[in-house]
Design a protein that fits this description.
656 residues, alpha+beta, five-stranded mixed beta sheet, seven-stranded antiparallel beta sheet, Methylamine Dehydrogenase, Chain H
Length: 656
């Protein structure tokens, strides 16, 4: 706790502010006092997120869910105003040190205290899960050791277990040393993910250290995925209970009911099979290390008396950085439909073959995020943009920045016209379609596209129209920006769109927001009228990418179900289903000759399969974060990828 700063507000709503409690990636947390004299924690959202209408919608939705959380072992949400100029949330203030502070100052808890802690935290998680929420960041710094029992705080970052993303972006927030394997791999964890984190917290309470502590992010990731913790010094019942919570597979972890009512009967699972250098999982981990080794990864914080921002605000969508209070923080962008609350066990990862390191990169100063990328039809120019309201154009051959286009708004989609003279972009706040002169950067068209920004853009082959997506499919005149047609998808959301080579079809990948029909499908629409011509059904989660082959006979689609499907467009049937194993697929493309299909993946790789056989042929590694979007030059020899929420101003290039 520290005094208010000169620029801090003195009052939020009816609450008088007294001091600072901490700061999170989304805002500042203050100690406040209610009109009735009760102390509360007041969490105020930063201005840059307050300006995003999509963020406000998600914030309001999650506040309403969090309000329903009851139970003795959680900090209650007592008030909120998502419509305020700076949205705010108020929770009960829980006096007392965090578990991290207690262990740092007094050492590990005795076994009886750990058993009591386990019961209390399990009860708190059960209250959270009962409201359809998942905490996603349970760690020692988020457990307050109050005089009357432990309390779980900061469940405001929770994601509704059955929700999908409101917009093009979703966030997985957590701390690597306390994350479940499925969360480390970029999936959205279900309730079993919180059970794994609970096991990590109990191990910390009992031993004074996290069960997967290491000195670097890759080492932590490897231990979480492949190694068993050493719990030999604990009493048998505690050892069994914690080991069961730390099972690698979600379905092998105990339920919260068992942890509350029959903890002594829980048995430790059989050890996870050890990885060998030649097996698929170990090779997958090696690829992850290649991709992360150049980051300046801080060591795991020791259990010392470091300041703990234990009431950091981490609610809602947008770009979030977790408070680094216990281990190494992670905030991974999961765009275009990764918001389901499933807890399915990770499938075995296909063995990465032909690991290909980057051949180069394109960078620009004063830009912190690149999440969209496009390439001209001649392959000479690449454009990229993201949250920084800037689009940068590079000469691919020399890596030289050709120009930067400022004041673009949050860039949520990019597409070059077939002749390369125009560059279309979408602004998310507010929803705008912008068309730029690619040679000069001059804005030629500026029209409202709807309530939300477009998640994807695609020019027709003749360049006369632009197809856009979100929340419905739309068709615009490329000269004037006038809306020519639309197809009502009942606001279920569209994450990807593409035009067939002959211009007759538009394919729209639907995210199935809130399970609305026609959810999790590819809608095939008329290229001129957007009237429905068919649909492709088979994916079980949000669609993240669609792409026609160069001859238009095939279509590839990717989804959060960790598959790429190849469809025969004429028969509307899937001719091949390719599983990406543990990785969530964010985008898909065909090679120009149609012989290969590519997938941008959450494990920082781009995978290339033979389209005819489904055999994995190459794995592109070395991008610093999960790859969100990718493009291929027309000769098929260069792949460019972007993506990530941490500061990253790089387009990574590979020669294939």
């Amino acid at each position: 706790m520290e005094p208010l700063h000169p620029g801090d507000p003195r009052r939020i709503g009816p609450y008088e502010l007294e001091a600072r409690l901490g700061a999170g990636g989304m805002g500042q947390v203050f100690l406040g006092e209610s009109p009735g004299g009760r102390r509360v924690a007041v969490k105020v959202v930063r201005a840059e997120y307050a300006e995003d209408e999509r963020f406000r919608r998600r914030f309001a939705r999650e506040v309403e869910a969090a309000r329903r959380v009851g139970g003795f072992h959680t900090a209650q949400v007592v008030d909120a105003d998502p419509e305020a100029e700076s949205p705010w949330l108020v929770t009960a203030f829980i006096p007392g040190p965090s578990l991290r502070e207690v262990v740092a100052e007094r050492g590990p808890l005795d076994p009886d205290a750990v058993r009591a802690l386990a019961a209390g935290l399990a009860e708190g998680l059960a209250a959270i899960h009962a409201c359809g929420l998942v905490h996603r960041d349970l760690k020692p710094g988020n457990v307050i050791m109050a005089a009357d029992g432990p309390r779980i705080i900061d469940f405001g970052i929770a994601l509704a277990a059955d929700a999908t993303v409101l917009t093009s972006h979703n966030v997985v927030v957590g701390t690597y040393a306390y994350m479940s394997p499925e969360q480390v791999l970029g999936d959205v964890p279900g309730p079993p993910g919180d059970v794994f984190s609970l096991g990590c917290v109990l191990a910390y309470a009992a031993t004074g250290g996290g069960p997967f502590d290491a000195t670097s992010i890759p080492a932590i990731v490897h231990r979480v995925l492949h190694e068993e913790p050493d719990l030999s010094a604990l009493p048998e019942d505690l050892r069994n209970l914690i080991a069961a919570c730390l099972a690698k597979e979600p379905e092998r972890r105990p339920t919260l009911d068992a942890l509350i009512s029959t903890p002594h009967s829980i048995e430790a699972p059989a050890p996870h099979p050890a990885s060998s250098p030649d097996d698929a999982v170990s090779t997958h981990a090696n690829a992850t290390r290649v991709a992360t080794r150049e980051q300046d990864a801080p060591a795991v914080a020791p259990a010392g008396p470091a300041p703990v921002g234990r009431r950091a605000l981490l609610i809602g969508g947008g770009v979030v950085a977790a408070a680094a209070t216990a281990g190494v923080p992670a905030a991974l962008f999961l765009t275009r439909g990764d918001g389901t609350g499933r807890a399915a066990p990770p499938a075995p990862a296909p063995r990465p073959k032909g690991l290909v390191s980057p051949s180069g990169s394109l960078t620009v100063s004063d830009v912190k995020s690149l999440s969209e990328v496009a390439v001209t039809a001649d392959g000479r120019t690449i454009a990229a943009g993201g949250l920084d309201s800037t689009i940068t154009l590079w000469d691919v051959a020399t890596g030289r920045v050709l120009r930067t286009i400022k004041k673009t708004g949050w860039v949520s989609a990019l597409a070059f016209s077939p002749d390369g003279r125009s560059l279309a972009s979408s602004c998310s706040t507010p929803g705008l379609l912008l068309i730029w002169d690619a040679a000069t950067g001059r804005l030629k068209v500026n029209v409202r596209s709807g309530e939300f920004g477009l998640n994807s853009l695609a020019y027709s082959p003749d360049g006369r129209t632009i197809a856009g997506a979100n929340p419905d499919a739309q068709l615009f005149d490329s000269d004037s920006g006038r809306r020519l047609a639309s197809y009502d998808l009942r606001h279920s959301g569209v994450n990807a769109i593409d035009c067939s080579p002959d211009g007759r079809l538009v394919a729209a990948g639907v995210d199935g927001y809130y399970r609305k029909p026609p959810g999790n499908t590819v809608q095939l629409l008329d290229g001129r009228t957007l009237r429905k011509r068919g649909q492709l059904v088979g994916h079980t989660a949000n669609l993240t990418g669609v792409a026609f082959s160069s001859d238009g006979r095939l279509l590839a689609s990717s989804a959060a179900d960790k598959t790429v499907r190849i469809w025969d467009v004429a028969t509307r049937r899937a001719v091949r289903v390719i599983k990406a194993g543990e990785a969530t697929v964010r985008d898909t493309k065909f090679s120009p000759d149609g012989s290969s299909v590519l997938a941008a993946c959450s494990d920082r790789t781009i995978r290339i399969w033979n389209a005819a056989t489904g055999v994995l042929t190459s794995t592109l590694v070395g991008h610093a974060q999960p790859v969100e979007r990718m493009v291929l030059t027309p000769d098929g020899r260069t792949v460019a990828g972007v993506g990530g929420t941490k500061a990253d101003n790089t387009v990574t290039l590979w020669k294939v």
